[in-house]
Specification:
48% of the residues lie in helices and 14% in strands. The protein is an alpha/beta fold.
Length: 458
Amino acid sequence: MTQPEEQLTAQVLLVDDEVSHAEVMAEALKRLGHVCTIVHDSVAAADELRHGTFDVIVTDLVMDSEEAGMKVLEEAKKTQPNAEVIMVTAHGDVPTAKAALRGGAYDFIEKPLDLDVFRNLVNRAAQTVLLRSQNTELRQQVDDRFGLEGIIGTSSAMQRVLTTVRQVAASDIPVLITGESGTGKELIAGAIHRNSPRAKKAFKPLNCAGLSASILESELFGHIKGSFTGAERDRQGVFEYADGGTLFLDEIGDMPVDMQAKLLRVLESGEVVRVGDNEPRHVNVRLISATNHDLQKLIKDGKFREDLFFRIRGAHIQLPSLRQRREDIPLLVRHFVTRFANAMNKTVIGIAEPAQLALMQYHWPGNVRELLNVVQNMVVVAGGEQLELADVPAEIRAAGEAEGEDLGSLAGLSLEQIEKQAIRNTLRMTGGNREQAAKLLNIGERTLYRKLKEYGLK
């Protein structure tokens, strides 16, 4: 006799304005081990979808209005893109239910429900979600091994960046990466190259900042022997070196204007001429550029050519500052701790919560590069198996204390108001990550969720 399959436990949101019908569906699913949340209108469903996490959403098609079920479907697709939606419909609403399928619903089932059919349908939807999740994890593991290694972050901001990296990598379209210094622009450029058809060819970075026009011209296009004082032999430039591969021009916003014109000609013709030579050489290079400047402002100020801007901005990736993705700081810290502890043969394996909190409160003007250097120094001075608050540089501790020292502003507030303010500030600090916020507040995640609803916080 074959063994029954292990039962999958799913988080299910049930939306039905008939209380008894909703309870019958919940009871049928709870017997299989599913966790059910019941609401009775589209407004309450939208609230749950914004604050909770669900695998399957089961919604009646017609409730407080004829469009109610479709509104739930639309909200679910917006807020729970990994979930599946099942529509429950009366016989006369079948055409609308089929329209819901075209809108992204998983399936529909007609009333009166056959509970066995209903349970099987929910199980299939939950299994689909599980398989999709496993495939995503597998793809992430492959990415980590074959090209996106070192790009750490589960925040929505970084996930959008990584999605764009995957989308543009397969093409030859020029890419412009913008963001503050230290956000990892070269890391992203390298990931695009390693995930492209050019991955086996050269990836050549060149920082344009601080180079005179003559030196930059030689670096870009090369020179021939005797073309200027000190040119003792022929030398190829980075365009020739990267032929067939990818050229990464960092800080392109600092390039002298006369060099911008020469760069534009190369990009348009696909040919370079070495300094002192008349012979053009054909090159096939994919260009990725980066800057921490506002190129539109430089164009208005006459410091950057608009025609070059349009040429290099085939696709645009804007990297968030570390302040904009604070929820990634614990992941980055853990990654850097492991990396530097292994390199230095130290026994450091983690970080104490007060030290973690200090790092999360800091504003990080130098972004990920600054965090990397700070963690490296902390690992150097650490005396135990975890980084302590005393290991955090004094200026970072002071910055965190400055944010919290205005205690006089709490005078006269009720305990409820103080708690509400603490929750709001902690959520802002963690970038909206409830799990991390709950840990820092020393309360359970369910308690935090209840208080969010109680205080009307998002």
